[in-house]
Amino acid sequence: MNNQSFTKTAYQKHLNDKKLMAARCQSCGALFLPPRPMCPDCYGAAMEWVAMSGKGKLAAFTAVFIGPTAMIEAGYDRTNPYCTGIVQLEEGPAISAQILGVPADQPDLIAIGTPLTAYFIERGEAEEKQHFLAFEKAG
Question: Is pTM beyond 0.85 here?
Fold first, then answer.
């Protein structure tokens, strides 16, 4: 597959379609999320899209009380914090995302190893609308 298809724009299109896709090196089988146009393990340039299950576990997290402008515009602030973390997917790759369904205002109640499922947050209006990857507490 052409490396040009492994751009941020192509990845965003998959997110807008509510699909979690990774790049897999056709030479060594390594998976990358977010996708990459070249494998840093074997330097292979033949990559292919692979659908991820969207299931994983919380590997690390932080509660954010003072966030960037986009998160403030989404309604988060000192009185309404959000959680962001690293999710270790069942297929192997780990990715950073917002974590939903956990008490961000009480981070001591959030547990490493919590099962999570991919969730796609829609933000923006009209042609500015995009989906962003998040994960929510499973079950």
Answer: yes
